[in-house]
């Protein structure tokens, strides 16, 4: 079975628009857990434009499902935040400051030594590590040498190509997932997954451990309601 981790960044975006506490990010996270999600994902960016560092501290105190914190460990404040709040999983994403959204995976060959060192720090604190990678065989092979537990396949190119050509869109992900599985890496996936493309992805990557989904899921919730939406996404993962 593939776990659904709901990324709540966009709930914080809406809250921050008015500077108050509506919608309440903590309440929404607890509701999402109650509605059946297997985990909560946040990506506190250095500019705190959506999830704030305080949100991470507050969430850690109350969540009962898997807490997954995403971010770039070249920011020391991010490393400190993760170590102080010990989530079940940290997902390392090589985003620059101010980037609109994540748009590439790690070059695990070029950054192999750096990743190895920082991953060891998180792992020695009992935190599972996942690293964000493109579906490229060489990047998966080098990911293995960093000591990471999981990889997260960056699915934007799949999502972009899916409606025109699902089989072509999924092909590199099947190869990458097979390689990762052969190397003993856990497999997560995320970015632009939605109600249309999720089932096909999960069906073709049977060893998929977890998907993290935010933008499309929160958009769907505007029309369908949060409880119904969480359940619709879960249904795409159980076939
Ligand atoms: C790591 C990743 O794929 C991202 O999707 C990310 O968590 C989304 O970040 P934003 O919500 O800031 O676009
Ligand atoms: N890791 C991907 C994630 O958390 C959510 O990405 P998106 O669904 O907001 O594109």
From TrEMBL:
Pathway: Cofactor biosynthesis; pyridoxine 5'-phosphate biosynthesis; pyridoxine 5'-phosphate from D-erythrose 4-phosphate: step 5/5
Binding-site residues for 1-deoxy-D-xylulose 5-phosphate, renumbered to this chain: 45, 50, 101
SUPFAM superfamilies given in the database record: Pyridoxine 5'-phosphate synthase (SSF63892)
Keyword Cytoplasm: yes
Swiss-Prot/TrEMBL site (Transition state stabilizer) positions: 152
Quaternary state and interactors: Homooctamer; tetramer of dimers.
The family this protein is said to belong to: Belongs to the PNP synthase family.
Record's function text: Catalyzes the complicated ring closure reaction between the two acyclic compounds 1-deoxy-D-xylulose-5-phosphate (DXP) and 3-amino-2-oxopropyl phosphate (1-amino-acetone-3-phosphate or AAP) to form pyridoxine 5'-phosphate (PNP) and inorganic phosphate.
PANTHER family, sorted: PYRIDOXINE 5'-PHOSPHATE SYNTHASE (PTHR30456)
Name of the protein in its database record: Pyridoxine 5'-phosphate synthase
Species per Swiss-Prot/TrEMBL record: Ferruginibacter yonginensis
Gene designation: pdxJ
């Amino acid at each position: 079975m593939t776990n659904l981790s709901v990324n709540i960044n966009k709930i914080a975006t809406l809250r921050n628009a008015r500077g108050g506490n509506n919608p309440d990010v903590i309440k929404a996270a607890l509701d999402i857990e109650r509605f059946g999600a297997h985990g909560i994902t946040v990506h506190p960016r250095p500019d705190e434009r959506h999830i704030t560092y305080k949100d991470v501290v507050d969430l850690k105190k109350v969540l009962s499902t898997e807490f997954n914190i995403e971010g770039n460990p070249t920011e020391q404040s991010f490393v400190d935040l993760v170590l102080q709040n010990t989530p079940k999983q940290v997902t390392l994403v090589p985003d620059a400051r101010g980037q609109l959204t994540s748009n590439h995976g790690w070059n695990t060959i070029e950054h192999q030594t750096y990743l190895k060192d920082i991953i060891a720090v998180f792992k020695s604190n009992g935190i599972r590590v996942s690293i964000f990678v493109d579906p490229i065989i060489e990047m998966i092979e080098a990911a293995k040498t960093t000591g990471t537990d999981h990889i997260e396949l960056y699915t934007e190119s799949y999502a972009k190509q899916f409606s025109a050509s699902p089989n072509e869109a999924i092909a590199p992900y099947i190869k990458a997932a097979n390689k990762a599985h052969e190397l003993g890496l856990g497999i997560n996936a995320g970015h632009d997954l939605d109600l249309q493309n999720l089932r096909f992805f999960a069906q073709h990557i049977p060893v998929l451990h977890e998907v993290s989904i935010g933008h499309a899921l929160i958009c769907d919730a505007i029309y369908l309601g949060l409880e119904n939406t969480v359940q619709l996404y879960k249904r795409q993962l159980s076939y």
